[in-house]
Design brief:
Structural class: alpha+beta
Number of helices: 3
Order of helices and strands: EEEEEEHHH
Helix content: 25-40%
Shape: elongated
Number of strands: 6
Amino acid sequence: MPLDEEIQCPCGTKISDPKQYKLVFIRKESFEIDILCPNDLCYLKELGWIKFELNEHGNIKFSKAEFHTPFVTWNSSRLGYEETAEKLKIHLKKIILELVDWDKVKKVLEEDKSGTKFENLIKS
């Protein structure tokens, strides 16, 4: 098995760069951002999530992020646990630190804390 093998969704979509994921802010009331498969026809759709909270000053504080078990298991069976864990950790780190537009998240929360309006959160 080649070491440069890419992460792959069980639907078959290869994810070579974390920029390929779709990030959406659907559940505002639970302060959760969903990480979706880039394939609109994917039967899993949601591959993971990012949880955050607001501190007493109204600033966003990251809580936790993870990929769902079916996505992790699929890749572990293909690449091995260690390689999968390393690659997915890199993906989450890049998503959280570089791709999520946290200013936009804060703005959306200030405008409307309720509702389930679809919001794309990838930085432009």
